[in-house]
Amino acid sequence: MVNRVEKLSLLSEMIAFAKYDKEIKRIEYNFLLGVAKQLDICREDFEYLLENPVTYTHLKSHSERIVQFHRLVLLMNIEQESNEENNSPGVIKLYNFGLRMGLSHESITKVLYLMESFPNKIVPPDVLIDIFKTQYN
C-alpha cells in the first residue's frame, strides 16, 4: 500500500512531467486532478503541489512503479493529443522518468516501441504488466 508521502510524491512527479514543456494544459490539469482524487489527495493539496513540488520518494513496490509508469504514459498521450507536433521530447522524458523509478531499460524501450501499434498510443494495462513481468523474472 502506498502511504501519503508516496502519494504526494507520485502526484508531484506527474505534475513535473506535465510541466516539462512549461505549462499544464487544461486536459492535463483535469487528468492530474483525477489522479489526485484516485490517490485520495484533496484539491487543496493538489493545488499546493502545482507550485510546491515535494521531494521524490522512490516506491519500494515494483507493481506500484509500473502503475505510476502507466499513469505517465497516459499523461504523455494526453499531452500529445492536445499537441500534435513531434512528441519525441515526451518519449525521452518518459524514458528518463522510468529509469529514475528503477524500471528496466528493456521494459521501458519495449513499451515505448509497442505504444505506436495501439490506438491513441495507449498501451493496455495488461500488456504493460506482462512486459514488466517478463523483464522482472
What does this structure look like?
This protein is mainly α and 137 residues long. Helix content is 69%, strand content 0%. It is built from seven helices and no strands. It has helices at 4-18, 26-38, 43-51, 62-82, 88-100, 105-115, 125-136. The longest helix is centred in the middle third of the chain and has 21 residues, at 62-82. It is globular and about 40 Å long. Mean pLDDT is 84; it is low at 82-86.
Report the β-strand fraction as a percent range.
Answer: under 5%
Distance between the termini: 22 Å
Task: Tell me, briefly, the overall form.
Answer: globular
Residues in helices, as a percent range: 55-70%
Structural class computed from helices and strand pairing: mainly alpha
The helix/strand order is HHHHHHH
In total, the number of strands is: 0
- Largest sheet report: none
Calculate the mean pLDDT score and round it: 84
Q: Would you identify the regions where 5 or more consecutive residues have pLDDT less than 50?
A: 82-86
**How large is the count of helical segments?**
7
Radius of gyration: 14 Å
Brief sketch in words of this structure:
With 137 residues, this protein is mainly α.
